[in-house]
Amino acid sequence: MLWTLIVVFFIFSLMLAPTMRFYHEGTGYRTVNPLVIQYAAGTMGNMGYSSVQCASIPLEVGKLSLQCPYGTIGEIYEYGVNLSDDMLTNCANNDEINQCQPDSASFLGLKTAAIGKATQLVDYGTVRSIYKTQKQADDCHIEGESRLFVQYSCIQSLENRDMKYN
């Protein structure tokens, strides 16, 4: 029984070796004293700290608030319009959403203005103002059901992360 456990744990260790190497390549603990963290550089904590948030609102409202529970907005991953209530909680693109993705220059500018801020109110105005053409605005809007969503990351500043680790 003991030899079986030794072999099984050896196999598990081999399977986890790539994961441990990946964690060692992280930079989350790069400014922390190596004597303090010891083996922590091989853990998930070395990857840093960030999360993905999703904000959505009915298109008719005209304003969408992006905010982070900590840190600042790091990157906008996906955005689009969910056409119906059955996709209410969807926060990722698919074929249907890709056809109705907002493409006006003013909307794209508002969206990217949020990067680096803790909170940002994206005031996109009317349904027509997020699309380049009136046809696209008509095809991609169902009154009372369509919802604009933005998926984004929140990242913690290096100073806050270092303070937390120390």
Describe this structure in words.
This protein has helices at 2-24, 34-37, 95-99, 105-112, 134-139, 158-165, and strands at residues 50-58, 63-67, 72-82, 119-123, 147-155. It folds into 2 domains: 2-47, no CATH class; 50-158, Rhamnose-binding lectin domain (RBL) (Jelly Rolls), CATH 2.60.120.740. A 3-stranded antiparallel beta sheet has the order 1-5-3. The longest helix has 23 residues, at 2-24. The chain is built from 6 helices and 5 strands, in the order ααβββααβαβα. Helix content is 33%, strand content 23%. The protein has 166 residues and is an alpha+beta fold.
Task: Supply database-style keywords.
Jelly Rolls, 2 domains, two-stranded antiparallel ribbon, elongated
Short description:
The protein has 166 residues and is α+β, with helices and mostly antiparallel strands. It folds into two domains: 2-47, no CATH class; 50-158, Jelly Rolls (Sandwich). Helices cover 33% and strands 23% of the residues.
Number of domains: 2
Q: What structural class do the secondary elements suggest?
A: alpha+beta
Known CATH architecture of the largest domain? Sandwich
Helix content: 25-40%
Report the sheet with the most strands, covering strand number, pairing sense and barrel closure.
3 strands, antiparallel
What oligomeric arrangement do these chains adopt? single chain
Query: Cα-atom Rg, whole angstroms?
Result: 22 Å
Mean pLDDT, rounded to whole units? 82
CATH topology of the largest domain: Jelly Rolls
How does the SSE layout of this entry go?
Blueprint: H1 2-24, H2 34-37, E1 50-58, E2 63-67, E3 72-82, H3 95-99, H4 105-112, E4 119-123, H5 134-139, E5 147-155, H6 158-165
